[in-house]
TrEMBL record:
UniProt keyword terms in alphabetical order: Signal
First and last residue of the signal peptide: 1-18
Tagged with keyword Signal: yes
Protein name per its UniProtKB record: Chondroitin proteoglycan 4 domain-containing protein
Native species: Panagrolaimus davidi
């Protein structure tokens, strides 16, 4: 297997199949290597998305966390034996949820939710849209498109528009998941969940840095998928910037201007985020209010 294919194999996992061309290339790489095909067989049997970057159904995901981490570990070790230099199952973003400190936080969240009559996915789907449905639509369209049709802008645009929609729903879901857990389990548990998710976004950023994909990502993924390369998008956390050369006054002026522009963008994002949070809190309160007046014991 040549170095380009090895790079693509890891890179595709990092970018999250954001373009149908990547998915097709990934399938070609797998099918061309019997060792990889054997190692990846568990994924085709397991009916769940193993990356938290592509799975907002947290109750379902956390309920299968032992099996998910087992599959990640097995596949990572298996691919290592294939002689692949760049193993996608060694990516930090895929493994961070299986670290002991992450598992401890996941257990806290799960322990609380198991005592509550809550279906968070249904609650957030009603507010954000059905991620599973849109994601499946993207998958089906990508499976159907041929290599020749990848040159057809209309066919590709249909997939990219659906992908953009899925990413928008994912961002809404991520905030909704945290706010709903805070509502059911308290602020501390909700903050633990937020930290788990933020760690995944930060790890994704580090993976892209190592793969030299940070500059490529904004040009290849739909606009709503910006959280895939900017870990500050959803929760507003600022990733430390690399130190730049400020010995030149012109460089300093440019840097200050860029920071000002970024600050304006961030302020707009924060305003939008706060508006979404208010809408979400109102939706949760409305549900509580409706349930209260639907209770058969209300007038007894």
């Amino acid at each position: 297997m040549n170095k380009f294919c090895i790079f693509v194999f890891a890179a595709i996992f990092a970018v999250g199949f954001s373009h149908p061309m990547y998915r097709k290339e990934f399938d070609k790489i797998i099918n061309s290597n019997d060792c990889l095909k054997t190692c990846m067989s568990n994924l085709t049997i397991f009916d769940e998305e193993i990356s938290l970057m592509k799975n907002p159904n947290l109750q379902r995901y956390f309920g299968k966390i032992d099996k998910i981490c087992g599959i990640i570990e097995f596949t990572r070790k298996c691919i290592d034996k294939c002689g692949i230099e760049s193993n996608p199952f060694s990516l930090e973003s895929l493994n961070v949820v299986c670290l002991p400190e992450s598992r401890e936080k996941i257990n806290e969240v799960t322990k609380c939710l198991n005592t509550k009559p809550a279906n968070i996915y249904s609650t957030c789907a009603g507010y954000c849209g059905d991620y599973d449905k849109i994601s499946e639509s993207v998958h089906q369209l990508t499976q159907k498109i041929s290599e020749n049709e990848l040159k057809n802008a209309t066919k590709v645009n249909e997939i990219m528009e659906k992908t953009n929609e899925a990413c928008g729903i994912y961002k809404c879901f991520t905030q909704c998941n945290v706010e709903t857990v805070k509502n059911y389990c308290g602020k501390n548990v909700g903050n633990e969940l937020q930290q788990i998710l933020q760690n995944v976004f930060d790890a994704q950023f580090h993976d892209l840095q190592k793969l030299n994909l940070l500059e490529t990502m904004p040009k290849t993924v739909p606009s709503e998928c910006n959280y895939m390369f900017d870990p500050s998008i959803i929760f507003g956390y600022q990733q430390p910037q690399q130190q730049s050369d400020i010995s030149n006054p012109q460089n300093l002026q440019i840097e200050l201007l860029l920071k000002q522009l970024k600050l304006i963008d961030r302020q707009n994002e924060l305003i939008n985020r706060e508006n979404q949070k208010i809408d979400l809190e109102m939706a949760v309160l409305s549900q509580k209010f409706e349930k209260k007046f639907e209770s058969p014991y209300l007038f007894h």
